[in-house]
Amino acid sequence: MQTRRYHHGDLRAALLTRAEQTLREKGPGALSLRELARDLGVSHAAPSRHFKDKQALLDALALAGFERLDEALATSRKAAGETFADRLGGLVRAYVDFAVANAELLDLMYTVKHDPAASEALITAAQRLGATAVELVAEGQRSGEVREGPVDDIGMPVFTTLHGFASFAVSSVLSAEEVESGLDAVIAYMVRGCAPS
């Protein structure tokens, strides 16, 4: 009889990688710490050193997703031009690209962040996403490219439009061609909605 080992180098990272693969292929219902351990060739108890239960694993997956999304948005910001329209366009494209490439993960991120058991780190990471959009609007107001008014009131329609378009993109309501051609129109719509009167 072959005994399963515990040592696996960085087991936590391996569990998260395999869990995200399972999430993408089969959905969150198929995630099981015991199955992940079997897939990685470690004892069924080994994952418990890193995740006390499946919810802790989902929480960690969602947190990793928010961190990757935050990094993608920060990268888009550095690459964007100086105008509000350029910076907003970069943010929109980065968000939609992330959503299309990580549809199941993005769905999990928004589901788990609303769970009453969500960790403080996860809640903070989710709030950083909103803060990025709010700061973009505030910068636009300071440069005179965005109308005056409460930043949240201006930013909310921008973010809901963005998330709605991304949702259509990942659910195949829009074809890949419609997503690509529609992005410019959506960005222009958001810019008009933010513009001074």
Structure description:
The chain has 8 helices and no strands. With 197 residues, it is mainly alpha-helical. The longest helix has 26 residues, at 54-79. The protein is elongated and about 65 Å long. Residues 1-7 have low confidence and may be disordered.
List keywords for this structure.
197 residues, 8 helices, disordered N terminus
List the helices and strands and how they pair.
Elements: H1 11-26, H2 33-40, H3 54-79, H4 84-101, H5 103-112, H6 120-142, H7 151-170, H8 176-194
Helix pairs in contact: 1-2, 3-4, 3-5, 3-6, 4-6, 4-7, 4-8, 6-7, 7-8
Given the helix and strand composition, which structural class is it? mainly alpha
Shape: elongated
Please provide the count of β strands. 0
Determine the number of helices (DSSP H or I, runs of at least 4 residues).
Answer: 8
Mean pLDDT, all residues: 90
Give a short overview:
Helices cover 71% and strands 0% of the residues. It is mostly helical and 197 residues long.
